[in-house]
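Suppose a colleague, Dr. K., hands you the sequence of a protein chain of 119 amino acids and asks what its three-dimensional shape might be. Before reaching for any lab equipment, you can write down a predicted structure in token form. Begin with the sequence itself:
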Amino acid sequence: MNTTLNRFALLAVIGLALAACKSGSDVRITNDKPEAVQWPPRSEPIFYNGKTYRLDFSPRGSGVYDMAVSGMSSGQKKDAIAVATSSLGYFACPDGQKGRLQNEAAYSGSKWRMQAKCG
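The predicted structure, expressed as tokens, is then:
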């Protein structure tokens, strides 16, 4: 009988401890369309076609990002665009959207520079 009381007391203590735990949550449920993530400028190493390149990007406003790809030659425009747009999709676009170029990519100062947006 004493063992039954000890088990009951132990279960009561565990139940009270669990009940005292925070029941609120930081999860917010909404039907609003998610916005692109905004953060300070950042730089990431990007492995592409067997080589590592450097991607610098920063939010410009209205969901547009200034992007620069280093380590490619002036003849690698298509590769630079692919690195920038796919990386933006990975790092900043919600719901698996892809990055989309907003202006013509230009080679300047040993970097491919362009602007891109999620979409």
